[in-house]
Specification:
Growth Hormone, Chain: A; 495 residues; 78% helix; fatty acid transmembrane transporter activity; lipid transport; mainly alpha; globular
């Protein structure tokens, strides 16, 4: 009798496994669907802000700072800008590869890199905006600290973008501006007059140096604050679901570069991004010397960034309503009529503000859409190569590689063009040839690059229908893997 009762109890226990399994599976799927809390997402987004803030400040102000504040020759400035961005581009995939191979610690795999890189990133970034008290070796000073800052900030971005695994892209676009010398006459005239004018100019330059250092100090403080918020608000979760070894770097590179949609998307955005980088890098000089709005250029740049930030929700709605390909065509071509307007009419402050608003709208689209479309390419690759694992980092790293390399080319070539045009370092006015060169770099060259990029984009094969189909298939795969993992876990705990 006792034996029979034991058998019945054992059978009842087996029968009760299924309800337990179903309950575990249901709870697991509910947690996955709910995802992270709003607080986690907010902290994750704040963690992406330091790189965007420092990148925007460097993109808009470093060129004019090296020329008019550090008083470097345009050729030396072009070398610093190109080599710094090229170094960033080359080290980006390497940093991502090494970080992804790090061991797991008590606070995660990525978080130690964030904590270790933040002090060095802050220090090297601050020293970029410090003018050393010596002339010999000044080029080496800026080149070394620009490269070191780029690498430290890149470590932070790789890790901040991986911690939490709650998003595939980030949107923050902010900037803290600096100042330039407030002068309105030619330096030769100043030298020819009495010493009080010369002393006033020196005082203005000294104040400008202090303004740049103050602005960089504010950015450094924001950088540290964002790193602390990221550390306290986002916890890294170990991925136990991957059973197979990740790709080797060489094989992963070959597979990614053989994926046609990725190649077409990257080449297309390479041209359009290069266009907007030319505008970004030369806009401050264009406003100051071609349009003569020396006292308003900080406000105009602020309008661009505010316009871009405020229109990101609009572009998010637009691409979900009309499709991503339509958003690319409209977003990248939106600012073109306004750029033609600003270079073909007489200098007018109202028109300049109007163009700044329109440029901000296009800047928002040009920076948002690539990061919105890269996940579609990754999903398409995963469906066509289901046995390949660990490929996501290569997709993003090499896109950033090409983007940084294009940025270096744009800044180096444009600064070198100014040298050939006769740019006067530290001058309060420039020759007409410099004004003409700036107009070419602001409108005709970006116009051609954007048109080429959009023509290449027409061959991009993932339309809205394909994207939704791939998204549905990927969701089914994720649900299947989740069900299998939950059932295995529940069965193990029940036994």
């Amino acid at each position: 009798m006792a034996k029979g009762e034991g058998a019945e109890q054992y059978a009842a226990g087996l029968l009760s496994v299924k309800p337990i399994v179903n309950a575990e599976v249901k709870a697991k799927k509910t947690r996955l669907r709910n995802g992270l809390s709003v607080w986690n997402k907010l902290c994750y987004a704040i963690g992406g802000a330091p790189y965007q803030i420092t990148g925007s400040a460097l993109g808009f102000f470093l060129q004019i700072y090296l020329l008019d504040v550090a008083l470097l020759d345009p050729f030396h400035a072009s070398v610093i800008l190109f080599v710094g961005r090229a170094w960033d581009a080359v080290t980006d995939p390497t940093v991502g590869f090494l970080v992804s191979r790090s061991r797991w610690t008590g606070i995660g795999r990525m978080m130690p890199w964030i904590l270790l890189s933040t002090p060095f990133a802050v220090l090297t970034y601050f020293l970029i905006w410090y003018v050393p008290p010596f002339e010999q070796g000044k080029v080496i000073w800026y080149l070394v600290f620009y490269c070191l800052s780029s690498q430290c900030r890149r470590v932070f971005t790789h890790d901040g973008g991986s911690v939490g695994k709650c998003s595939r892209h980030s949107h923050p676009r902010q900037i803290v501006g600096g100042a330039t010398p407030d002068c309105s006459t030619d330096p030769d005239v100043l030298i020819a007059t009495n010493s009080s004018h010369v002393n006033a100019t020196r005082t203005s330059l000294k104040d400008t140096k202090q303004a740049y250092m103050f602005a960089s100090g504010v950015i450094c403080a924001i950088y540290v604050l964002c790193a602390v918020i990221l550390f306290l608000g986002v916890k890294e979760h170990k991925d136990n679901g991957q059973k197979k070894a990740p790709l080797t770097f060489q094989r992963g590179l070959w597979l990614v570069m053989s994926h046609s949609p990725y190649v077409k998307l990257v080449i297309s955005f390479l041209f359009t991004s290069l266009a907007f980088m030319l505008i970004e890098g030369n806009f401050a000089l264009f406003i100051t010397y071609a349009l003569g709005h020396r006292n308003d250029f900080q406000n105009l740049l602020l309008v661009i960034m505010l316009s871009g930030t405020l229109t990101i929700p609009f572009w998010q709605w637009f691409l979900t309503r009309f499709g991503k390909k339509t958003a690319v065509y409209i977003g990248n071509s939106w600012a073109l009529p306004f750029m033609i307007l600003i270079v073909s009419t007489q200098s007018n402050l109202v028109i300049s503000y109007l163009v700044s608003v329109a440029a901000g709208v296009s800047v928002a689209a040009s920076f948002l859409l690539p990061w919105s479309m890269l996940p579609d390419v990754v999903d398409d690759f995963k469906l066509k190569n289901p046995d390949v694992h660990g490929h996501e980092a290569i997709f993003y790293s090499f896109y950033v590689f090409f983007l940084k390399f294009a940025s270096g080319v744009s800044l180096g070539v444009s600064t070198l063009s100014l040298k050939f045009a006769g740019y006067v370092t530290g001058g309060c006015s420039q020759p007409e040839s410099v004004s003409l060169t700036l107009k070419m770099l602001i409108c005709p060259v970006p116009l051609v690059l954007i048109i080429l990029g959009l023509l290449i984009f027409k061959t991009y094969p993932i339309d809205e229908e394909t994207r939704k189909c791939n998204q549905k298939l990927m969701q089914e795969i994720l649900d299947s893997e989740s069900d299998s993992e939950s059932e295995s876990s529940a069965l193990g705990s029940s036994v």
